[in-house]
Specification:
The protein is an alpha/beta fold and 339 residues long. The chain is built from ten helices and 14 strands. The strands form four sheets. An eight-stranded parallel beta sheet has the order 7-6-5-4-1-12-9-8. Strand 2 and strand 3 form a beta hairpin. It is globular, with a radius of gyration of 19 Å.
Length: 339
């Protein structure tokens, strides 16, 4: 693979609230240095809902020698709000590119699921649930591709006016993207038990499209059986109905860091063997899914986290005594592969 990457969250914004409460540039620099020096990444996908935060982290990453995939991540925004977000971010990304940074612009992610207007439903949960209802799924799926591509046409125009580098979009298969206006074919790609026997062929089909392929998101949560669920690992989480943020797990689950590490390593091997250009493990850390070993099992949200480090609420780690997290086994697996 050309670009060996990981996703880095500057905070997801939902209903005006940022999932990463604190944003200290000194901490950001330290974490991105770990990503470059210790994980041996050559690229980082900087994700978030706050353009200023994305730009700050992207600038630090570029200074460290990382290729940046500048990735605004809209959640529950209207099409007008998304276009405004992309315009702001494209201007910021262009500044970094003109200053010599290697920058790819990612024009949103999984829009059909994460935002209204493409599928029926007032929330991501409702839209995902719709797809499991055979009486309505066929009609909804038949319409979503046209809606996504119509919007992406407008979004690409907004971005191209402001950004002179390469662009892409982090898709799910449901989106049925027309890749003509993009420089990369980019897919959030998880292997679940249901498609395990088709996974390698699916990757080959993407590479056969002829454009460089980026896997913009892949990984596993840290509980036993999470790898079989693939992208559905967060289904074990209960969320606050008012804020939409995670509260607890819906039962008792066994920690399986070895399973998470094996899953990530196996997919990296597939992507490397099949000619994928760029791959971004999801994700370095999820701050709103902290490790709570002293509470009840259902309070340990880290079990559902795709993060490769355990976020600690009230202490620093042992491996990195100046960091409020501790690496999981997947951290070492990625470092060994990328090295």
């Amino acid at each position: 693979m050309r670009a060996k990457g990981i996703s880095y969250s500057t905070g997801f914004v939902l209903r005006g609230v940022n999932s990463r409460v604190s944003f200290d540039p000194a901490l950001i620099e330290r974490e991105l240095r770990v990503i470059h020096d210790d994980l041996h990444c050559t690229a980082v996908r900087v994700i978030g809902g706050d353009p200023e935060r994305i730009e700050t982290a992207a600038r630090i990453a570029i200074d460290l020698g990382l290729e940046v995939w500048f990735s605004p991540y809209p959640l529950e925004l209207s099409t007008e709000e998304m276009l405004s977000l992309f315009a702001d971010c494209a201007e910021r990304a262009e500044r970094l590119r003109r200053q010599g940074g290697e920058v790819v612009f990612v024009t949103g992610a999984e829009l059909s699921l994460m935002n209204p207007g493409f599928l029926p439903g007032d929330s991501t949960d409702e839209r995902v649930a719709l797809l499991t209802r055979s009486d309505r799924a066929r009609e909804a799926i038949g319409q979503v591709g046209a809606r996504v591509n119509d919007f992406l046409g407008a979004a690409v125009a907004v971005v191209r006016e402001r950004f002179g580098g390469k662009i892409t979009y982090a898709s799910v298969p449901l989106d049925r993207v027309d890749w003509t206006p993009f420089d990369f074919v980019s897919v959030d790609l998880y292997r679940s038990k249901e498609i395990e026997d088709q996974f390698v062929d699916g990757v080959r089909d993407l590479v056969a499209l002829g454009k460089p392929v980026a896997v913009t998101e892949f990984g596993a949560a840290g509980y036993r059986g999470a790898g079989d669920r693939g992208a559905r690992g967060l289904e074990i989480v209960e969320y606050d109905k008012e804020t939409g943020w995670p509260v607890r797990l819906n039962g008792d689950y066994a920690r399986d860091e070895a399973g998470q590490a094996s899953y990530v390593r196996e997919l990296l091997e597939v992507f490397d063997a099949e000619g994928v250009d760029s791959a971004f493990v999801f994700i370095f850390a999820l701050d709103d899914f902290p490790h709570c070993p002293d509470g009840t099992p259902s309070e340990d949200l880290d079990l559902a986290s795709y993060g490769i480090v355990k976020v600690l609420e009230d202490r620093y780690g042992d491996t990195y005594p100046d960091m409020p997290w501790e690496p999981k086994l997947a951290f070492s697996a990625i470092a060994d592969f990328y090295r």
